[in-house]
Design a protein that fits this description.
Blueprint: H1 3-14, H2 30-53, H3 57-62, H4 70-78, H5 87-95, H6 99-105, E1 116-118, H7 122-125, E2 130-132, H8 137-155, H9 163-171, H10 179-195, H11 197-206
Helix pairs in contact: 2-8, 4-6, 8-10, 9-10, 10-11
C-alpha cells in the first residue's frame, strides 16, 4: 500500500462523525465501557473549557448530559469505535440508523438538527414542509465548541485549527441549517482556521455573544 493510500485511510478514520463505522457485536465489555466513558468525559472537558473561555458557564457544565441516559450510554458501550469516531456510526452499521443519535439530537440545543419545525406555508408555496429555524447565538457558540472538541477528541495529535472548518465543508451541514445560523458558524470556523483558537474565542466572547452584527 502506498504512503498516500495509508495516509488517506488513517485520515478517514480520524474524521469525526463519518458514517463508515466499524461493525460491532453489540456486547458490552469493560474495555468498551471504560473507553467510551473516557472519550465522553474528555470531550465534555474540552467543550467546558471552550464554553468557559467565552462566558457560557452553564452550558459548559450541562453539555451533552443526555449521553449518560440509558439510550445513549448503553449504545455508546455496545458500539464503541475505539475512540476514533462516534459510536453512533457503529450503531448505524448494525441497525441502519442510530437510536442514540435520534435521542441525542432531540435533547441538545447546540445541534442544528434540534432546530427544525413544520412550515405552515409550505403547502401553499409547494415547498418542502420541514424548515430550519434560526438558532440563538448562545447555542451556535456551543455548537462551535462541540465541533472543535469533537475534532480534537477523534483526531488527537493530527488536529489543527483548520480541521473543524474542513469537516463542516465536507459534511455540507450548512445546507440544512437556517441561512443566518450557517453564516454565523462559518464565520467563526474561518476565524478559527485563519487566526487560531485564541482569536476565535475572543471574537465569540467580545463580539458575537454581545450581539455584534454578522
Amino acid at each position: 500500500m502506498s504512503c498516500k493510500m495509508q495516509e488517506d485511510k488513517r485520515y478517514q478514520n480520524e474524521i469525526p462523525g463519518r458514517y463508515e463505522g466499524s461493525p460491532s457485536d453489540g456486547k458490552i465489555t469493560w474495555d468498551k465501557t471504560l473507553g467510551h466513558l473516557h472519550t465522553v468525559l474528555h470531550h465534555k472537558k474540552l467543550v467546558a473549557e471552550g464554553c468557559f473561555a467565552v462566558g457560557l458557564y452553564r452550558q459548559g457544565l450541562l453539555h451533552d448530559l443526555s449521553k449518560f441516559q440509558p439510550t445513549e450510554l448503553l449504545n455508546g458501550f455496545r458500539y464503541f469505535q475505539g475512540g476514533m469516531q462516534s459510536p453512533n456510526n457503529g450503531e448505524r452499521v448494525v441497525k441502519g440508523h442510530s437510536d442514540s443519535w435520534i435521542h441525542h439530537k432531540g435533547r441538545n440545543r447546540h445541534h442544528y438538527e434540534y432546530w427544525n419545525d413544520y412550515s405552515i406555508d409550505a403547502a401553499k408555496k409547494g415547498e418542502f414542509p420541514i424548515r430550519a429555524v434560526r438558532m440563538p447565538r448562545r447555542y451556535v457558540a456551543e455548537m462551535l465548541m462541540d465541533r472543535i472538541a469533537a475534532s480534537k477528541t477523534y483526531m488527537k495529535d493530527a488536529y489543527t485549527d483548520e480541521e473543524p472548518l474542513k469537516y463542516y465543508e465536507r459534511g455540507r451541514a450548512g445546507e440544512l441549517m437556517h441561512p443566518q445560523t450557517a453564516k454565523e458558524l462559518e464565520t467563526m470556523l474561518k476565524i478559527l482556521a485563519r487566526k487560531g483558537e485564541k482569536e476565535c474565542f475572543r471574537f465569540v466572547r467580545d463580539y458575537y455573544l454581545k450581539g455584534g452584527k454578522m
